[in-house]
Amino acid sequence: MEGSVTLEIKNNIGEIEFYHPQSNSLPSKILNKLALTIKECGTNDLIKIIIIKSKGERAFCAGASFEELTNISNKIEGKKFFMGFANVINAARKCPKLIIGRVQGKAVGGGVGMACAVDYCYATKYASIKLSELAVGIGPFVVGPAVERKSGLSAYSQLSVNATKWFDANWAREKGIYAEVFESTEEMDISINNLATKLIKSNPAAMKKLKEVFWEKHIHWDSLLEERAEYSGELVLSNFTKEAIAKFKNK
Q1: pLDDT tens per residue, range 142-178
Q2: pTM of full prediction above 0.85
Q3: How far apart are CA 9 and CA 13, in angstroms?
Q4: Where are the domains of the chain?
Q5: Distances, alpha carbon 132 to alpha carbons 156, 160, 173, 235, in Å
Q6: Residue 22, Cβ density class (10 Å: 0-12 exposed, 13-18 middle, ≥19 buried)
Q7: What is the pLDDT of residues 193-202, one digit of tens each?
Q8: Class at the top of the CATH hierarchy for domain 4-184
């Protein structure tokens, strides 16, 4: 039940694949390894382009581990839990290399944040998204900056407020979260490979500078996401949130 994070380097392309048997809901250990792997890819001279993907067919990422969430007992544990995806988002933001996202299935919470933190994201028609945090008494505070940056405040607000609704892949494409949506994973993988193959032939210095330009207005995110994680870590200890989580578990 521990899950995994693997890195395969081939033809100057670094493919990072994460996995957890519970619909790719990621515990802290996996999130920490994912953030570290992204950082390592950024300094590896053998890698020019990064692809982030998950194992499985219909679930890209169901967010952070719900089991860990229910076991939080104090503010320190709460902040540490919510820093999981904060660290992954910031690792993607600060990575000097362009990152392509491969979203083959549904994405929830932190999974949506991850899709928004990459530089170019592909998806299949099965890749619906949902920010379900408000439904369990919290709120998508940590992933919010990444989602708002990609989709705008209006779309982020819709996702945040209508927390039980699945927004389909075409909606996400229209809002800028996905660049392209495909009928099948096979079609998506062909396009990912085509783009990656073109990019590895591009000037690395130009791509690095382009990445800096993409993110130049967000250099304060280290402190911002830490503040958001701390606030979320406090909320999860409230009686309201504990009762909401209990109801959710008993469904």
Answers
A1: 999 999 999 999 999 999 999 999 999 999 999 999 9
A2: yes
A3: 6
A4: 4-184
A5: 12, 7, 19, 15
A6: middle
A7: 999 999 999 9
A8: alpha beta
